[in-house]
Amino acid sequence: MRREHVLPAPADTHALGRHLADLVAPGDLVVLVGPLGAGKTALTQGIGAGLGVGEPVTSPTFVIARVHRGGRVPLVHVDAYRLGGVADVDDLDLDATTAESVTVVEWGEGLVEQLADEHLEIRLDRRDDDVRTALLVPHGLGWEQRLAP
């Protein structure tokens, strides 16, 4: 799989998420990095759709974390934007669901990496022409192998 993706439309971001859903397994951690409007929630919606989650996947900005069941693997969607630090992440008890779920964390860089031995970091950006980009950065041999062409 390519590590760099150009995503001209929200549907492309969603499609990348659906493709990533084919690669994830219980226990996986995906950390989404990028500014507001870069496509973090759209990517997570694609992952949810690819997993077969039947309910809408919306930004958990105010509830911080949502668990979506009903797909082939539960999806835990976290928005760490309002969290003050690692202690706040610990208070969420995400490690209690990590082993059986796919955990996707928006704004989680520097806060959640300790939840798993390996993780996939996705660096999203929005260019001046409103086109989004995604750079997949594997952390660990398992992700290196899954993303290998």
From TrEMBL:
UniProt GO cellular component terms: cytoplasm
GO biological process, one term: tRNA threonylcarbamoyladenosine modification
One Pfam family linked to the record: TsaE
Superkingdom of origin organism: Bacteria
Localization terms from the record: Cytoplasm
Assigned keywords, A-Z: ATP-binding, Cytoplasm, Magnesium, Metal-binding, Nucleotide-binding, tRNA processing
Cross-referenced Gene3D superfamilies: P-loop containing nucleotide triphosphate hydrolases
Record flagged with keyword Protein transport: no
Record-linked SUPFAM superfamilies: P-loop containing nucleoside triphosphate hydrolases
Coiled coil: none
MF annotations from Gene Ontology: ATP binding; metal ion binding
Major localization class: cytoplasm
UniProt function note: Required for the formation of a threonylcarbamoyl group on adenosine at position 37 (t(6)A37) in tRNAs that read codons beginning with adenine. Is involved in the transfer of the threonylcarbamoyl moiety of threonylcarbamoyl-AMP (TC-AMP) to the N6 group of A37, together with TsaD and TsaB. TsaE seems to play an indirect role in the t(6)A biosynthesis pathway, possibly in regulating the core enzymatic function of TsaD.
UniProt cross-references to NCBIfam families, sorted A to Z: T6A_YjeE (TIGR00150)
Family membership noted in the UniProt record: Belongs to the TsaE family.
Name recorded for this polypeptide: tRNA threonylcarbamoyladenosine biosynthesis protein TsaE
Classification lineage: Bacteria, Bacillati, Actinomycetota, Actinomycetes, Geodermatophilales
